[in-house]
Structures are given as C-alpha cells and as structure tokens.
Amino acid sequence: MRLLPHLLLLSLLLSSISARHVVLYLSPDDFKDTLPADVDLDTDWEDFPDSAPETDHEVDPGSWRSVVDGDFPSDPSSSPDDSLYASGVNKMISAVSSADPRSMDDSVSDIEAAAQSGNPHAQSTLAFLYGTGSARDLTPAKAFLYHHFAADNGNMQSKMALAYTYHRQEMYDKSVKLYSELAGVAISSALISKESPVLEPVRIHSGVEENKEALRKSRGEEEEDFQITEYQAQRGNAGAMYRIGIYYYYGLRGVRRDEAEALYWLHKAGEKGEPRSMELLGEIYAMGAGLQKNYTKALEWLTLAIRHQHFSAYNGLGYLYVKGYGVEKNYTKAREFFEKAVENEETAALYNLGVMYLKGYGVKRDIKLARKFIFTASTVGQPKAFYHLAKMCQKGVGFKENLQMASALFKLVAERGPWGSLSKWALDSYIKGEVGKALLLYSRLAEMGYEVAQSNAAWILDKYGEHSTCMGELGFCTDAERHQRAHSLWWQASEQGNEHAALLIGDAYYYGRGTDKDYERAAEAYLHAHSQSNAQAMFNLGYMHEHGQGLPLDLHLAKRYYDQALETDPAAKLPVTLALGSLWIRKSYPNSFLVELIDSLPQIYPKVVAWVDEVIMDEGNATILTLVVCLLTVLYLRDRQRRNAAVLPPQPNEVPN
Ligand SMILES: *[C@@H]1O[C@H](CO)[C@@H](O)[C@H](O)[C@H]1NC(C)=O
Ligand SMILES: *[C@@H]1O[C@H](CO)[C@@H](O)[C@H](O)[C@H]1NC(C)=O
Ligand SMILES: *[C@@H]1O[C@H](CO)[C@@H](O)[C@H](O)[C@H]1NC(C)=O
C-alpha cells in the first residue's frame, strides 16, 4: 500500500458497457497534514453507521417510479394533492407512451394544480417541464424556482437537479452542501462492506450508431440468467442459492426487491456451507436490513464465515467490536480484525481503518495514515471511501480545502442513489420500443446531471427526429425545439467530458445545425474534443486551419493537426493522406487552378452531400467533405498524369515542414 509519488489518478470502477470515465487528479501538493481550527473530528465526522438501509420509496418519496408502481401515495387518504400529483404523473407517462399531446396537457394541469397547493413532488415535476419546455414554455428561471421550492420541501430529485445546476455554474459552496447530503443518503443504504451493486446507466449509442451489443446484453440475457440460476438453486446448488438471494435482496435481474425471499435463499445457502451467504447474513443481522437486528446471530454467521476461510468477514467482526454490538467494545480487537480483512483483500476494511485513525479510536489520531487508507480504498472504487475523501476535501482535513474536488466526488457518490434507478426504467422502455417514454425518463436524469443520460436523450432526439415523440411547448416538438434541446443536452454531456458530444457541438456550429453557423465556436468545441484526444476533432481542426475557418490560416499547424489525428487513430490514414495531399497542392501550386478547384468544391458540396446523404449516411461532416474534395483532386491528378507525365503526383510524405 504505497501512494503513487506524483499524480494520483482516481477512477471510479468502470462498468464495461457504460464506459463511464471519471478521472480526477489529486497530487501531493494538495495534501495538508494539519487540522483546520474550525474542524472537530469528534463531532464533525460520521461515526460508523448503524442505521438500517431503507427502501428506495422511503429514501426518494414521490418519484415517478413509486407513483407508477402504486407505492405513492402509500395511503390514499393522505393528502388530496398527493393523489392529484399521482394521477398527473400516471397520465403523463401514458401520454408520452402513446404519443398523445392532448392528454399530456391534461396531465400537466393536474401536476400544476398540485404544485400550486404546495406539493413538493408536483413542483419538482413542474420544474422539469419548464426546464425542458415540455407542454410549458421553456423557462429556466421558473424551472430553477420550482426546483428550489421542491428541494426545500424534501424532494430529492430536485436536490439533485439544483446541485448539478450549482456545480455547472461553479458555485461549489452551494453544490457541495446539496451533494454531500445526497451522497450521505446514497451510501446509507449500504451494508457494512457490501455496496448495493448499482447499475451504471447504459450508453445506448456509440458515436452515431445504436450500441447494439449493449442493448442485446440488457435485453434477453437477464431474465434467462435469472431462470437458469433459479432452476439450479431449486436443484440444491448452494452458489446459485446465494446468487438468487442477492438478486432478490437488491432487486436485480428483472426481479422486484423482496427481502423475505432473499433471506430465505441466503439462509438456505448458508446452511449448505456457502460462505459468502454467511458473511452477508452476518451483515444483514448486524444492520437490521429487512429484519430485526440480532447481534448474536450476526456474530454467529460472521464467525462461521471465517471458519469457512472466508476472511473478508473479518471486516464485519471489526464493525461489531468498534460498536460493541453483541461483544464487549474493544478498539484494539476491531483494528486487528480490520487489518486481517485488509490482508485478505477486503478493500472496504481499508476505509474503516481510515475512519478509526481519523476518529482516533484506540489509536493516536493520525491524519496521514487516515488519508492513506481512505485514498487507497477510493482507488479501488469504494463509494464510501469516495464519500470520506470528498468530505476531507470539503473540510480541509488531510487535503487542502478544495470545494470543486469535493463537489465532483460527492456528485459521483450521489449519482449512486436510488434516483439513478430511473436509468434502468428508461433502458427497459427503450428496448421495448417506447422511445418517447425513454426520452422522457432520460431527460429527467439528464436534468439531475447524469452524463450518460444526457447523451442518450440527445442521441434519441437526433436519431428519431419527428418520431422521437418529444413533447414541445404545444404538442410535439417543432424542429427548432428538437434541435435546441439536443444541442443543449450535447453541450452538457460535453462539459462532463463526453468527447463525442464535443465533436457534435463542433459539427453543429460548423454546419449551422440547430444553431447559427459559427466557425469560431466550432473551432472552440473541436479544440475541447481535441483535448480529449479525439482524432476526428484533430482532423477538423487541421481542416479549419487549412482553410482559415474560425482559426488563422496556417498550413503548418494544419499539417500538425492532421499528423496528430493519424497518430491518435490509425483508421484516419486515408482522409489524412488525402488531406495532406491537398495541403501539398496548396503549398506547391498557390493560386493555381488546382487550388481554385479545391476551394470551389465546398460550393458544390451541398449537391455532393445530397448524394452522400442518400448513399452513405444521413449527415455529412468535415471528414466526408474533405474526403470527397481530396478524392476528386487525386482523381483529377491521376487523369492529368496520364495525359501529361510531367506533372508529379502528390507526395504527402514530403510535405516540407
Ligand atoms: C437472537 O438470536 C439468538 C441466537 O440465535 C436467539 O437465541 C435470540 O432469541 C435472538 N434474539 C431475538 C431478540 O430475536
Ligand atoms: C482488547 O483486545 C486486545 C487484543 O485482542 C486484548 O489484549 C485486550 O485485553 C482487550 N481489552 C479488553 C478490555 O478486553
Ligand atoms: C463523420 O464521418 C466519418 C467518416 O465516415 C465518421 O467515421 C464519423 O463518425 C462522422 N462523424 C460524425 C460526427 O458524424
């Protein structure tokens, strides 16, 4: 366990399908070993948690999901505006599913009425409608205001939306406050060491194409997987029993969360000697998740797991000794158990050790050691470690105070909260062909700051055009509304590091799609994508330098960008070769007929594009443009060469530097 000497790279465990990349840099320059005067770790720092995990509906009340599932309002006589809101949401979901703008209006009237009488969930939904311009005029100020009311009255999704808004506007003191609360809620539903396996949002497109593989994966396999496992479990396979227990406990693989069913299978597996079930049962009894706490039973199961050589269970034992649950409180023993768990590669024990050193439980308080343990736990993707790390940056403990970093880290953890389950619902809707509903749900997540949802929603808007059943201010979206919405979503995704989005923004400005043509802004967006190592963006920048569009006319720089594009992506070989050829012509025959030809091609480009549109793809871009231009040039040269052997063919490799 050694901290890397220079740049420390944190990256949240990536799920292979979502390809979510989060990279944050913390360097030793950010370390600080003294405690700020206004921080008292005894009172300002969480102890080890001992609250029982709550269900999603309790943590995130009034979510659309709980309304549609019939879990909200839980008591029909509770409040008339709760029922009004619920009816509004049900109507809204069915309006987008059946693409019926008139019943959309109807639903929004219900929601608005409930919002006017102060219902926070209705206010949150109304904010969303104003923020996207669905059935209401696009009014960001009203969206902000209603989110604000809703958040003050406890609506969690509005808190997410507000936190994201503040984060974007670099008002980190405000975003940190909200995100830290949300992150705390998100991790409070975890057991001692077992995090609920959050499903990262799936990216439904890769580049401009649908991500067929990811969709196929999410489609059939899940249920099949469940059925096979269930069959094996019924035949007495202990490993399968454990997996079924997990599916029920967390509500995975298309089954609804059912704690009683989960405990039934885990007990069965545990009795058959399945050690992971023993550890999980121990943690469940210790936290009282879905059953009455029983520390005696917790101790029994954890001890049994260890006897079966399942040493990560030492972590749970350590917890019992820190708290003095079922045993006599003994910090020395607790630390020994955590250390044993770490030796056996249980990374959750790492940040537990970190917290012991922060709090000074049974040891001398040691900020450096605490930082080391917590940081190391975070590099293997422990969300609780991210949470503590964020808090250290927020309070200036172990690190220099850094609210921007704290906000980014809390955001990561907050996005694991139960509100994120919307993405599963959105994906299921998309797979079932309910594109309008998928768009609605992704848009809601987009508002809460989920980058994958932002790009999914934008992609649906681009891809499905009029068929996206996107609801505009009056009825379906107009073309202008759709472009505007997609543009704003791509923009947000791009801000959050989505290189494809940055490229699309550039293209939008370059071709004037959904916005006015603006070469300078296009260049800016391409530069952003370039900083994310996007070969296409490099190429486009080269092209813009070559033609002096939005960037100074500079043939040397143009060549440098073309070369970079080739280094980054070998597949760019052909367009780069052609572009270098065109550059060579420009340098060698300035003001000649050839250059005129190359330059006049963009004017006839629309005609070529019409052809390319039909034949090759639906949208043109700078690559295609250049490809066509240069192909024609080369063909022309070949032709000339045949007629007049004196003209040299282009020698791209000899372009003078
Ligand atoms: C807890 O478990 C122990 C051992 O299995 C049992 O004897 C005891 O009655 C249980 N306590 C409660 C309150 O259920
Ligand atoms: C706590 O545990 C340590 C190490 O196992 C042991 O030496 C010590 O006596 C225990 N303390 C008490 C008060 O039981
Ligand atoms: C532009 O065209 C190239 C070549 O066909 C393609 O690979 C790329 O994905 C396109 N980019 C966009 C943004 O349409």
UniProtKB/TrEMBL annotation:
Signal peptide (UniProt feature, chain positions): 1-19
Signal listed as a keyword: yes
Coiled coil start-end: none
Pfam family, one: Sel1
Alphabetic keyword roster: Signal
Bias type Low complexity, positions: 73-83
Annotated segments matching region Disordered: 43-83, 97-117
Highest taxon of source: Eukaryota
GO biological process: ERAD pathway
PANTHER family hit by this protein: ERAD-ASSOCIATED E3 UBIQUITIN-PROTEIN LIGASE COMPONENT HRD3A-RELATED
Protein name as annotated: ERAD-associated E3 ubiquitin-protein ligase component HRD3A
